[in-house]
Amino acid sequence: MLSAKSLFQEIIDNDESFRLFCSIAASGESQGGWENGRIAALVPESERGLAPKIARHGADEDKHGRIFNALMKKRGLEPAPVPAEADYTMLLEKHGIGLAHDQLRRDERLSVQEIVTYLAHSRVTEQRASEQMVMLRKHFADDPDLGRAVKMISNDEDNHLAYCHEELLRFAYAGHGRTIQRILRECAMAEIAVYRDVSLAVMDHMGRVLGWSKPKAAALAAGIHGVYAYERLGGWRRMVSLGMPERRDALGGPAATSVEFA
Q: Are residues 183 and 117 in contact, defined by beta-carbon separation less than 8 angstroms?
């Protein structure tokens, strides 16, 4: 019987599929670290108080990338090239989610509107990240290799999501509410399609590595399409709601940047 735990266990137990899984994750986290670092450097003067939190977000993402690379190194594995069709972060950018890399490479201050857009996009993608880590934490928290990494990353992702809620509510109270809701909805609808396509691509690559039968591959693809149908019909709403989080000022302190998984 297929289950999330059995599927991920199969991927983790095989060196080549584990290498691909960690490489995809490390690449996405590292890209997120760079993006947040550039945004922190380009925050408008009126929002300079937000810069340390954005920088902390970026430092956390960099740390996550190092964690996944350390997990590979512990098994004597080198990072694998990330297939373009499985590059979640870059595909999001192509769909207009997040601030364009060309813009972030320029030394021009961002506008308040662009900061609001960045936060709204982050609120959607951090929802996905938080949910994925909750799932991995549920099944692998006691794993001798993955457990500590999963718990650390999961806690960080929850902090990132809390920070997005709190800052977006602050901007909503300042008069940006309608804009925030519009951007959240547009981003959520685009993200669920990208997530579907990336999931199908990753499962296709994993299936070839692990030698999955056609019926098994078809069942997994059907499951991915089923998740998309649920999200398209209404599941996306969980990505656009805003509420004051229990974790207040979640990114208000310094980031823990050391990584020891060797």
A: yes
